[in-house]
Fold this sequence. Notes:
The structure is a homodimer. Chain A is an alpha/beta fold. In chain A, a hairpin with a 2-residue loop joins strand 2 and strand 3. In chain A, about 40% of the residues lie in helices and about 25% in strands. In chain A, helix 9 packs parallel to helix 10. Chain A has two domains: about 100 residues, Urease, subunit C, domain 1, CATH 2.30.40; about 300 residues, Metal-dependent hydrolases (TIM Barrel, Alpha-Beta Barrel). The first copy, chain A, is built from 16 helices and 15 strands. An eight-stranded parallel sheet of chain A has the order 5-6-7-8-9-10-11-12, sandwiched between helices. In chain A, strands 3-2-1-4-13-14-15 form a seven-stranded mixed sheet. The model of chain A has no long low-confidence stretch (mean pLDDT about 95). Chains A and B meet through helix 11, helix 13 and helix 16 of A and helix 11, helix 13 and helix 16 of B. Chains A, B: This is PROTEASE (PSPA). Chains A, B: One of its GO terms (molecular function) is peptidase activity. Chains A, B: Keywords: Hydrolase, Protease. Chains A, B: InterPro entries: Amidohydro-rel, Metal-dep_hydrolase_composite, Metal_Hydrolase, MTA/SAH_deaminase.
Amino acid sequence: MIHILGAERVLLCDEEFRLLSKGAVAFLGDKILAVDSYEKLQKRYPEALAEYHPQGILLPGLINAHLHLEFSANQTTLLYGGFDRWLSSVITHRDVLMGEGAKEAMRRALDEVLSSGTTTIGAISSAGLDLEILAHSSLRVLFFNEVIGSNPSAIDFLWEDFLGRLKRSEEFKSSRFTPLVAIHSPYSVHPFLIKRALLEAKRLGGVVSTHFMESKEEREWLEESRGFFGDFFARFFGGVKPKALSTPLEFLELLEGQRVMLVHGVQMNEEELAKAASLGASLASCPRSNRLLGGELLDISKVKKAGIPFLLATDGLSSNTSLSLLEELRIALFAYAKEPLESWARELVLSVTKRAAYALGLESGELREGLKADLALFELEGIGECTQEALQWILHAKKVKTLYIEGKKVEVK
Amino acid sequence: MIHILGAERVLLCDEEFRLLSKGAVAFLGDKILAVDSYEKLQKRYPEALAEYHPQGILLPGLINAHLHLEFSANQTTLLYGGFDRWLSSVITHRDVLMGEGAKEAMRRALDEVLSSGTTTIGAISSAGLDLEILAHSSLRVLFFNEVIGSNPSAIDFLWEDFLGRLKRSEEFKSSRFTPLVAIHSPYSVHPFLIKRALLEAKRLGGVVSTHFMESKEEREWLEESRGFFGDFFARFFGGVKPKALSTPLEFLELLEGQRVMLVHGVQMNEEELAKAASLGASLASCPRSNRLLGGELLDISKVKKAGIPFLLATDGLSSNTSLSLLEELRIALFAYAKEPLESWARELVLSVTKRAAYALGLESGELREGLKADLALFELEGIGECTQEALQWILHAKKVKTLYIEGKKVEVK
């Protein structure tokens, strides 16, 4: 049965940011058949099940390319105001946050993801605790099995652990669930592990995600093997002060030939930005997380100048107050106060739709024939008279009204 | 009957930002009797009606020193992205926004004010449309009757209109409702009107509020009598191009000897900041409004350096998405990303409590013996183990749990 979903405004989220007034999407099964005016689609598909929302604003389902679901139990436990104190507090409280109550917290967090109009997430899985919840959720999930480990004496164990998680996640592979590989960061993964993990990534196909240049402490460590991370690793490595495993550029070179999504990049310098651009990497920015941990936001103009597509994501509840992309969009709108308001609003919309889809290699993120029928319909009073649709949607959207993933209506709490 | 309201954390909101653990406020009638540990207050007042909130965080009721309630019907009508286009859209849509539906919109907006834990507002009234709603609300209200008018031929009429509104508002004067005077701005009020209005302000006592240096267009006009405002006034003055009535400094000089709260000040230069400091003026900042209209935020460090106390306010729904101070605080926390996180959070809390009370000349804004029993109690899971109370409260507070104004419990929707 063909469905037609019509709305007062339809945001195609193509590169020209075209809009339709009284537009609609026709879809069959998991795919979009056509995007046109509601009237024309009704004529073309007279048998279709059609609905029209006169206060509606229809977008492709939003894509939250980077989050950590496993830490959803954090609310006021972790310390903010410095990457060093934050990471130390994560180590201290990790077991409690991932213990009793973690699953319930993850379920609540996913409800929030859906109600913000998100249809796809990129979830970094550190321990596999989130595997079954995500595999059984109605979301489209890119499940990034994260490899971590810099201490040579622990590498074999950590590799086996990673491989076990990866294999287990592969059992759940489906049209909506894609197992992938994430590399934790340049400071925490041995090049030996990185190379082996990249072979697994090649076997799987698809994008690799990695945190990169999130904090000043990271640069200090990678370039000079000193500072916070020196003491941090010494504690874990039994008093022996190790050295950094690679410079930022050497790390990027390891990723050559691989589709990569870098995460954060707040501290990237121009050389690193140029290198990332030459790799064809995308960059996911999480402004709320960056502000809470490091006290600095990504310099968007530098990233744009380097020609790197940036996308917006929430990060996990370990460093944010919600997994709602709507809230992240609002913060980004106001926090980047010097960006021209309307064009910035449009860029932000693209950063959670088309550009996020590009970064993750998805057949969605746009309303276009042949793409997945992942659709998010919101209601906004007065949208019919509005000429600043992207802006007003970011300002006012609180909860999605109707959500489709692969052409199936999803219940939103 | 004495009441004791106890909570896991009590934020006194004094200049040292002291906190009590398992603290409480005892109050009788409209006044705070004592602030101490819950246990001690129970012993001191054994007959009191006492309640304790183990997840509670208790603050003085919040103070939203600057808003325009009359424009509450705006949601997506007005144009953002430039002061010029915004002001033009206000003129075009003013009658509709203030027409049918305005009162219902104002009531809804006040519900939101209360549910954000606000006990006092400074409301700029342009037409008196909000008078009865505010006079009958449970909020503490500073009702700023606004004088406007720069065209000499209309001055008499506008003065009579202002005086009529002022007198009418004086009929509602009470312990919670204070009629005051606001001067619209340096560009829109003739010095002749300003002087007369200031005499009324002297008669009433209390603070005068005025928009000041909100936009680049304002400076261009005041200093060079050209730009957007040149055309704008020419339209209203029948084709004759008028000249600016005073420079920014001359305007400030008119306010000499008067307790003043300036609003916005985004474009103030150092000379003007120094002059404002010498007047003992406070400065109310509305970051969301500033970003939407002018695309720039107030440079807080300059304001602090000049020694001017700043406070945070929402402005009206004509230039904001909500009248919730909680949302404004969150935006300010993230938008001023370079301010040190924890101390900035504490400053922000003071900017809607103690400092706002100072700016408006209120006997509230702090939890201290003898002040008004205006109290806002929130619940925050894990507050007992939390060491970053101000920060976590700003991050997570969505809705007040219990609100007292002048010692009376107020229903919150």
